[in-house]
Automatic annotation (TrEMBL), chain A:
Organism: Thiosulfatimonas sediminis
Transmembrane parts of this sequence: none
Name listed for the protein in its UniProt record: Bifunctional protein PyrR
A Pfam family: Pribosyltran
InterPro entries (alphabetical): PRTase-like, PRTase_dom, PyrR_bifunctional
NCBIfam families attached to this UniProt entry: PRK05205.1-1
Organism phylogeny: Bacteria, Pseudomonadati, Pseudomonadota, Gammaproteobacteria, Thiotrichales
Domain Phosphoribosyltransferase: 12-143
Automatic annotation (TrEMBL), chain B:
Name recorded for this polypeptide: Aspartate carbamoyltransferase
Family: Belongs to the aspartate/ornithine carbamoyltransferase superfamily. ATCase family.
Location of the Aspartate/ornithine carbamoyltransferase Asp/Orn-binding domain: 171-317
Binding positions (carbamoyl phosphate): R71, T72, R121, H151, Q154, G280, P281
Length: 170, 346
């Protein structure tokens, strides 16, 4: 296994610059992080962008499409969106975009709060080749291959280690 | 070989998790806190509103109320709708049972309609246990009140309300006042308070409305309400269950109010900020004064609201446990298969 320690700070700096540019036509955006990893990333981006409204946090446990197979996550906590969603430009943040099912659940939950004007999707890491649903992020920190494994710890500091199997030739 | 000292709890599955909710008796603290914590997640922390979620979409729940009920039945129905389940509320009182059909035949007929969960209220103690014994594997039973035996979801919503208002149940002194003898709610409340380790549980009422040896329940007994309310954090009033009384157990309702009714003056003996609860329906001027029922310390209507979140939590936890059991069994089966394959390969 080959391990790679990611410079998360540099990625977040770049992502916030890309995001500010992306949101030029979408005034007064409000940010939502998906618990838990997405919330960590969202807090950092929220700070860097100096958004005036409080950060929203959602827990997608009640919206997962595998409830009848694996049941509830015992660590479930209430979602907390402290402002109106209706007609707002939202920035939805997660740490990893993988199959796309988490984002689908998050969108379903957001729409239960109201109909936003738009949703911009931001992820730190994107495993595009593993996608099972037709979703893509607007701002991505780093692209990964399906074979790469991720170990994340946080929230302060956020540490990401990527590892991948090394081919051994004889 | 050692003999088994206690029968296995019929409401727990092979993983020790709830598959039915029939009573709180025999449950552990983690069973209760899991439900209370899940209920917390159904409430929007900013508005106290309870959200609709798609958790039980495609699941079929039947509400069987063999005994009249407004509050419990309505909150169960709302809870089921908020979980996006398909629901059917059957007016059993005026249907099959009235025509002489046995409970077991009623159950089998309803089961043939593909229910995933039954919510049952019955005037006979043990009716929910009976249902649970006879349902097919994979079908769940919730007790919405059986005779004088148990009303576990009411007790859980009471615990949830106390937790919301007081932070924790541990270290609280709780007084339960009124007709203790006939109340299934009180039995379940005492069990819940004991499991959650309340500091002190007091029951207050005349001897005729208390069980013969109340101390075996682990409670302190008071016949003088003024003595019993001193320094308590929570006052739970319960209704006179006239329909269950077989003889005159109190001189009159007026006399009962004079001796045991909760008035502002009496409430002042409890701790400042003590909360007043009542599982309903309330009889103003019989067990509680209107000034107290509608006063600033009353949380009676919040109990009703929280009842929806708690019932949503009970149903989701039970269905989640079923999913986890199926997953576990599939893994076990897979492991056994792999072992056979390994043996065959050797």
């Amino acid at each position: 296994m080959q391990e790679l320690d990611i410079d998360v700070t540099a990625l977040l700096d770049q992502m916030s610059r890309d995001l500010i540019q992306k949101m030029v036509d979408r005034p007064n955006p409000k940010m939502i992080g998906i618990r838990t990893g997405g919330e960590w990333i969202a807090r950092e981006l929220h700070k860097r962008m100096q958004l005036p409204e409080e950060l929203g946090v959602i827990d997608i446990a009640f919206y997962r499409d595998d409830f009848s197979r694996i049941g509830l996550n015992p660590e479930i906590k209430p979602s907390d969106i402290p402002w109106e969603v209706e007609d707002q430009h939202l920035i939805l943040v997660d740490d990893l975009l993988y199959t796309g099912r988490t984002i689908r659940s998050a969108l379903n939950e957001i729409f239960d709060y109201g109909r936003p004007a738009s949703v911009t999707l931001v992820v730190l890491l994107d495993r595009k080749a593993c996608r099972e649903l037709p979703l893509q992020a607007d701002v991505v920190g780093m692209q990964l291959a399906c074979s790469q494994k991720i170990k994340a710890t946080g929230p302060d500091p956020i540490k990401i280690i990527i590892s991948e199997p090394v081919e051994v030739t004889v | 070989m050692k003999a088994r000292l206690t029968a296995p709890n019929p409401q727990l599955n092979e993983l020790g998790k709830l598959k039915h909710l029939l009573t709180l008796e025999g449950l552990k603290q983690h069973h209760l806190t899991e439900i209370l914590d899940t209920a917390e997640s159904f409430i929007d922390p900013n508005t106290n509103k309870i959200k609709k979620v798609p958790l039980l979409r495609g699941k079929s729940i039947m509400n069987l109320f063999f005994e009249p009920s407004t509050r419990t039945r309505t909150t169960f129905e709302i809870a089921e709708k908020r979980l996006s389940a398909d629901i059917e509320s059957l007016d059993i009182q005026t249907s099959a049972a009235k025509k002489g059909e046995s409970l077991l035949d009623t159950l089998w007929n309803l089961q043939a309609m593909q229910a995933d969960m039954f919510v049952i209220r019955h005037a006979e103690s043990g009716a929910a246990h009976f249902f649970a014994q006879h349902v097919a594997p994979g079908v769940h039973v919730l007790n919405a009140g059986d005779g004088q035996h148990a009303h576990p979801t009411q007790a859980l919503l009471d615990m949830f309300t106390i937790r919301k208002k007081k932070g924790d149940i541990f270290d609280l002194k709780v007084a339960i006042v009124g007709d203790i003898l006939h109340s299934r709610v009180v039995r379940s409340q005492i069990q819940a308070l004991s499991i959650l380790e309340a500091r002190e549980i007091r029951v207050i009422g005349p001897k005729t409305l208390l069980p013969e040896h109340p101390e075996v329940l682990g409670v302190h007994v008071y016949h003088d309400i003024e003595e019993g309310l001193k320094d308590v954090d929570v006052v739970i009033m319960v209704r006179l269950q006239n329909e269950r009384m077989k003889s005159a157990l109190i001189p009159s309702e007026k006399e009962f109010f004079k001796r045991y009714g909760l008035t502002e003056k009496r409430l002042a003996l409890a701790k400042p900020g003590a909360i007043v609860m009542h599982p309903g329906p309330i009889n103003r001027g019989v067990e509680i004064d209107s000034a107290v029922a509608d006063g600033p310390q009353s949380v009676i209507l919040e109990q009703v609201t929280y009842g929806i979140a708690v019932r949503m939590a009970v149903m989701s936890v039970i269905m989640s446990n079923a999913a986890q059991l199926t997953q576990y069994q599939a893994e076990q089966e897979q492991a056994a298969l792999s072992e056979v394959e390994m043996e065959n390969a050797q």
